[in-house]
Amino acid sequence: MLADAGHTWEKCMFFKRHTSSVIAPEDALPGRAQPSYAIPSTHAVLGTPIQPPFPDGLQTAVFALGCFWGAERLFWQTEGVYATAAGYSGGSTPNPTYKEVCSEKTGHAEAVLAVFDPDKISYEALLRIFFEAHDPTQGMRQGYDIGSNYRSAIYYSTESQRLLAEATRAAYNAELRQAGRGEITTEIAPLGPFYYAEEYHQQYLHKVPNGYCGLAGTGVTCPVPAVAGGSDLDLKLKPLPASDEQWRQILTPEQYDVLRRAGTERPFLNKYVDADEDGTYHCAACGNPLFDSGTKYHSGCGWPSFTETISPDAVELHEDRSFGMVRTEVRCARCHSHLGHVFDDGPIEAGGQRYCMNSVALDLDES
After folding, report:
1. CATH number of the domain at 237-366, out of 3.20.20.70, 2.170.150.20, 3.40.190.10, 3.90.1150.180?
2. Could you confirm whether 67 is annotated as catalytic?
């Protein structure tokens, strides 16, 4: 069986045409209602269950970082990890087979489930291990493993995991850019079904100690950003008011005018225009993380300016034709409050954008 697994892997590697994007759901293979193979119940190394239910207090994380053989071993060797499993996630085809996933017609990535004890290891520590163990800038490949099934991805199951993943990605992206590396292409998406891979894939490098391991990091250290505050993270997110009157009650008059009525504060005399402190800028209305201080720069426009958001999903952009101009308005993606505007006159070396924000729309959580 293991010899067949290696043969199948070689076919996936060298005898197919590779795509540059994930297949659309309507074009994916139909799959099946139930797995077409038996799934083991016990971890071959740790002796723990690899399928739920798991003991109370444990949490789960799902990562994709290339071939899942080496990736799974990386996590089962990590202290605080209770169990791991190889599988498929992020696609459309229910209960796929390895051959189907390798065809790139399922949309799935080869993924690893890590069941961990948060009292022994934090989710942000797992994120650091994830980012440092592979090259997250390669798009639809990982080293010699080419195809959408080898893409880098984080599949989150809670809002806390999403925020931590996005903040860590942004912080590591800044480090990689400084080191002369490319932009991170890691997908961050809600966790859908995790389909367990065939038995021969589970703990493969325990069964075949000299088997293939495609992991190769960049050598750049991944920082843990200020937003990665462990169990206190959810406290940064504020409840969303149900009415305009409630917004008036929790915001100052100036905050209400800017955040809820798209007003603009006075230039140069605002709180963060000259701020240089390290940390994460959150939406003053709802606590959503928006910008990392490492992307802030002095633009001379009179308002705090940033070259990029902490993640593409942190804000939403809208056309603004007020005052006889055509501009791009920036709103918080969580509470839809007005933050400012984005312009294409930022530093060319940092992407060319200037996110011009109102200080009153921001809160700085210093690291």
Report:
1. 2.170.150.20
2. yes
